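Let us practice reading a record.
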Amino acid sequence: MWGISDFKEGYQPRTNIVKDEKGGLATDCNSILSRCSNHFSQLFKIHGVIDVRQTEIHTAEPLVPEPNTCEFEMAIEKLKRQKSQGTVGIPSELIKAGGRTIRPEIH
């Protein structure tokens, strides 16, 4: 039979200690949050960012590329029958049975 003390054995509570700008230790939540805020503000100033909330991220291409037709067809073939319809509410049997009529519309 296991007791709570068996699970707690060897447990060391985590302490949150951060060094402040002068090298001293900051242990309370407000000091730690202030230090983190100042630290990251300094990092962003080096890269020319003044306010992170107003920063936009621009990429040349989508982070995840759209699947091509072949990948889409392979994914449909791998669909299992009698499974949950997911968020769109279309059963896999209907997608498979629809063939070339509905697949391009879904893709």
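A brief commentary: The helical segments are 4-8, 29-46, 69-78, 92-106.
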